[in-house]
């Protein structure tokens, strides 16, 4: 079986690529003839495609677990001494496997959609599956022609090259699958919207359908980004949680678009407004998902996260990206009609604030997109190399972030169609909370005090209302509270960071921000595929023990590569972070010490946002069972 498994995997990919042609033909023919059994037949073909892709992916996993170095891909990213869990993660640790994982996730979403609506009479569902099949087939064509993970090598390699040490982290196990799950869900929503365009109608019911699928997709994407942030923080050794790296931004773009889409669909399903907004945001969510998946594999963007370091596949990748993106936008331009507004609203209504929110989201997307693509376009033009980093993004996006927080509070406190009627308790109570927050933090600087006051005022304004309204809007209030916690985490992690770099000898003590770091002992460790030097550092304050961290310097033999593993400890308010650098003498190392706060609040806020969104999604499940 092992001898022919790669060939079986390749054949499964070929068959999976051929199925969408039959799916699309039957779907469009059945749509024109109004055949009642269309959904069941198209669903069956979708299940068959998913089964074939799952078979191919399972055979690739088997190749890694059995160290089948007759495959080029396994020889490049595998190793006999890799732990079992990392062997599994190595399946998507390179270009070919990660792209196949993306396609499997998309097919899984398609199969789930097909199962949910297999008995539906509306041809919208069959058209959606046909479009999803076409997108899947386009990606499979690229895999088969340019990124085949089942390519053989003869004679086989004696040993694998090993997985990139930077990827040997638990984050690799969860981060990419969750990102691709998010991308796949956004593609489903785009396919529903495009199918609605083919029918010439996008109403509140279809908006509700899109909302039911966008929430779990947005949640998976959020979880993937949070895990990626934690992975970078705990692995790269620079003490930050977001670097504004091109690949980080590539995942942020569909997340921002999906966040705007959730708000747009909320208005479309409730009031019938912003239908064009919802359609375009759904399409651009798909486009940015393709961008995040494809452009970082072209070799043009330089990033610690990039999978491909050659540009051989750049031309076909961009051809695929342009074809799918242009096709989606062309369908919108061809079929979208000038719908008359379904409802009218006045200047200070909830609709107005949501519209302003959508405009702000769009502005942020454009800013991030320009900052991400400009260095690439600058290089392609032959003008040299340029980088756009944190100073640009932090400076330009700060005003938008503050305004969006204020708009969030105004939207939550307003009413549909008419002007908001703020109660005195809500108005004065939120103002009092904001002032108290500013006074409590005035010693930390104006920006920290102002931003904290704004967040506290906005969040409290949403909760200071009638108990009945709180109960009805509890998921929304919870999600927006998560936004507030997230914003506070950003404020404190940006303004409360102190660091120091120096050479430290065993037994020496260093003071940073009122904390004492003592280099106690040095240990020598041996892992399955690496050796390591580990420093034990005790942290105290006023002679009272606070924490202990154990930074490491790891040497991976197969790759002949040195990696650092930061030592991290934390409590509710503070974070201690130590990086062990080069050896500068006998038991003497260059080290960096960080004392900071708020980073865990960033991740906690994201978790609360997801909890609120999923709570609202779960509450409405019975109405759509």
Question: What is the strand and helix layout of this fold?
Answer:
Elements: H1 5-33, H2 38-65, H3 72-77, H4 84-90, H5 95-116, H6 123-146, H7 170-199, H8 204-235, H9 246-271, H10 275-294, H11 314-335, H12 350-380, H13 390-412, H14 424-440, H15 446-463, H16 467-472, H17 474-495, E1 498-505, E2 509-512, E3 515-526, E4 530-541, E5 544-549, E6 552-556, E7 561-565, E8 567-570, E9 574-585, E10 588-597, H18 599-619
Antiparallel strand pairs: 1-10, 2-3, 3-4, 4-5, 4-6, 6-7, 8-9, 9-10
Helix pairs in contact: 1-2, 1-6, 2-5, 2-6, 5-6, 5-7, 6-7, 6-11, 7-8, 7-10, 7-11, 8-9, 8-18, 9-10, 9-12, 10-11, 12-13, 13-15, 14-15, 15-17, 17-18
Work out the number of β strands: 10
What is the mean predicted local confidence, pLDDT?
85
Computed CA radius of gyration, to the nearest angstrom: 26 Å
List low-confidence stretches. Answer: none
Tally of helical runs: 18
Judged by helices, strands and strand pairing, the structural class is alpha+beta
Shape: globular
What fraction of the residues are assigned to beta strands by DSSP? 5-15%
Distance between the termini: 43 Å
Element order: H for helix, E for strand: HHHHHHHHHHHHHHHHHEEEEEEEEEEH
Largest pleated sheet: 6 strands, antiparallel
Share of helix, binned = 55-70%
Task: Tag the structure with descriptive keywords.
alpha+beta, 4-stranded antiparallel beta sheet, 12% strand
Question: How is this structure best described in words?
Answer:
It is built from 18 helices and 10 strands. The protein is 61% helix and 12% strand. Strand 6 (552-556) and strand 7 (561-565) form a beta hairpin. The protein is globular and about 80 Å long. Strands 2, 3, 4, 5, 6 and 7 form a 6-stranded antiparallel beta sheet that branches. Strands 1-10-9-8 form a 4-stranded antiparallel beta sheet. The mean pLDDT is 85. By secondary structure, it is of the alpha+beta class. The longest helix is centred in the middle third of the chain and has 32 residues, at 204-235. Helix 1 runs antiparallel to helix 6 and helix 7 (170-199) crosses helix 10. The relative contact order is 0.08.
């Amino acid at each position: 079986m092992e001898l022919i498994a790669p060939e079986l995997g390749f054949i499964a990919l070929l068959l999976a690529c051929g199925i969408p042609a039959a799916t699309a033909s039957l779907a469009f023919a059945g749509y024109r003839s109004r055949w009642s059994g269309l959904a069941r037949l198209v669903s069956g073909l979708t299940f068959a495609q998913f089964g074939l892709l799952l078979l191919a992916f399972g055979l690739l996993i088997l190749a890694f677990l059995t160290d089948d170095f007759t495959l080029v891909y396994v020889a490049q990213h595998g190793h006999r001494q890799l732990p079992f869990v990392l062997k599994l993660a190595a399946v998507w640790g390179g270009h070919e496997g990660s792209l196949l994982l993306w396609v499997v996730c998309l097919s899984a979403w398609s199969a789930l959609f097909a199962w949910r609506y297999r008995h539906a009479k509306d041809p919208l569902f069959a058209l959606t599956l046909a479009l999803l099949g076409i997108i899947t087939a386009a990606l499979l064509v690229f895999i088969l022609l340019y990124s085949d993970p089942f390519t053989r090598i003869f004679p086989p390699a004696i040993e694998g090259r090993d997985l990139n040490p930077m990827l040997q982290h638990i984050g690799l196990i969860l981060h990419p699958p969750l990102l691709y799950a998010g991308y796949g869900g956004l593609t489903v929503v785009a396919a529903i919207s495009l199918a609605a365009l083919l029918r010439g109608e996008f109403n509140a019911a279809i908006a509700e359908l899109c909302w039911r699928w966008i929430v779990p997709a947005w949640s998976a994407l959020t979880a993937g980004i949070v895990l990626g942030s934690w992975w970078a923080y705990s692995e790269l050794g620079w003490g930050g949680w977001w670097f504004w790296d091109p690949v980080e931004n590539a995942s942020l773009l569909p997340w921002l678009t999906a966040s705007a889409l959730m708000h747009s669909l909320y208005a479309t399903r409730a009031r019938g407004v912003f239908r064009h907004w919802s359609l375009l945001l759904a399409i651009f969510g798909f486009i940015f998902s393709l961008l995040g998946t494809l452009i970082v594999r072209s070799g043009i963007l330089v990033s610690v996260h990039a999978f491909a370091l050659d540009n051989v596949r750049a031309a076909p990748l961009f051809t695929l990206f342009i074809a799918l993106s242009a096709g989606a936008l062309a369908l919108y331009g061809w079929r979208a009609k000038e719908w008359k507004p379904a409802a009218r609203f006045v200047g200070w209504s909830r609709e107005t604030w949501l519209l302003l929110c959508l405009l702000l989201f769009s502005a942020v997307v454009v800013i991030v997109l320009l900052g991400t693509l400009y260095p690439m376009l600058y290089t392609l033009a032959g003008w040299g190399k340029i980088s756009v980093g944190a100073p640009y993004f932090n400076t330009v996006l700060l005003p938008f972030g503050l305004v969006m927080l204020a708009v969030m509070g105004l939207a939550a406190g307003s009413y549909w169609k008419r002007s908001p009627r703020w109660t005195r308790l809500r108005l004065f109570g939120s103002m009092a909370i904001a002032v108290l927050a500013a006074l409590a933090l005035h010693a930390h600087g104006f920006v920290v005090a102002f931003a904290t006051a704004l967040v506290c005022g906005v969040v409290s304004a949403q909760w200071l209302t009638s108990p009945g309204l709180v109960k009805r809007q509890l998921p929304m209030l919870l999600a927006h509270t998560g936004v507030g916690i997230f914003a506070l985490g950003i404020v404190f992690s940006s303004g409360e960071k102190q660091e120091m770099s120096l050479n430290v000898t065993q037994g020496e003590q260093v003071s940073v921000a009122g904390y004492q770091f003592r280099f106690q002992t040095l240990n020598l460790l041996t892992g399955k595929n690496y050796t390591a030097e580990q420093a034990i550092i005790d942290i105290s304050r006023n002679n009272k023990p606070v924490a202990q961290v154990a930074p490491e310097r790891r040497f991976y033999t197969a790759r002949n590569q040195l990696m650092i593993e930061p030592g991290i400890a934390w409590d509710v308010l503070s974070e201690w972070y130590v990086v062990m650098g080069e050896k500068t003498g006998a038991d003497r190392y260059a080290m960096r010490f960080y004392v900071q706060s708020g980073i865990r609040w960033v991740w906690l806020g994201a978790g609360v946002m997801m909890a609120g969104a999923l709570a609202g999604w779960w509450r409405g499940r019975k109405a759509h069972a």
